Amino acid sequence: VTAIRTAAATAVATDVLARREVKTLAFLGYGEQAETHYEALRLVRPFERLLLWGRDRSKAEAFAKHHAGKALPVEVVATAEDAVSRADIVCTLTAAIDPILLGRWLKPGTHVNAVGSGTAREAELDVEAIKRSRLFADNRDGVLGQCGEFLRAKAAGAVDDAHVLGSVGDVI
Predict the structure, then answer these.
(1) Is pTM beyond 0.85 here?
(2) Which of 10, 8, 47, 46 is nearest to 25 (CA)?
(3) Which of 97, 63, 71, 13 is closest to 5 using CA atoms?
(4) What is residue 172's predicted lDDT score, i.e. its pLDDT?
(5) What DSSP string describes the chain?
(6) Taking a C-beta distance cutoff of 8 angstroms, is the pair 144, 138 a contact?
(7) What pLDDT was estimated at residue 105?
(8) Alpha-carbon torsion, ordered 4, 54, 56, 120, to 10 deg
(9) pLDDT one-digit tens code per residue, 119-148
């Protein structure tokens, strides 16, 4: 249920915050969250392709093989940078403790759904990615108190609490 709920929340955030004209979706991660996000995000944007990166290429290839012939073709890429730099929308879907997405890789206008990290010790995005973002949270208080990416950027002096512009619910 958690995976379905999380993917639904990501789809809502994408629907209200991302540009309308997009073609390329990227996933950093290939587990249960990737499966539910694959289904949910196709409901809010007409993607042409999914770029997939993960630390274990054989698991990424298995994900792609599982989805072969479905509505959204999956291309496994060699690096996270390759996926991020070519994408219009990126979902980080890992349990990474240290950043796997660097802000310098992002094209202007890219929408990022930072899904995987949920504690102060985890961070999928680096300080630069947070600093460059217009940051909306699923829960503002949660981000201020326990979001590893935000807390690292704040500790580095790159952002303050006002950088969290609100919640997705506020946008809706």
Answers:
(1) yes
(2) 47
(3) 13
(4) 92
(5) -HHHHHHHHHHHHHHHHS-S---EEEEE--SHHHHHHHHHHTTTS--SEEEEE-SSHHHHHHHHHHTTTSSS-EEE-S-HHHHHHH-SEEEE-S--SS-SB-GGGPPTT-EEEE-S--STT--SB-HHHHHHS-EEESSHHHHHHH-HHHHHHHHTTS--GGGEEEEHHHH-
(6) no
(7) 98
(8) -70
(9) 889 999 999 999 999 999 988 999 999 999
The CA R_g of the chain, rounded to the nearest whole Å, is: 15
Which pLDDT value is given to residue 3?
85
CB 113 within 8 A of CB 25: no
pLDDT confidence tier of residue 104, bands split at 50, 70 and 90: very high
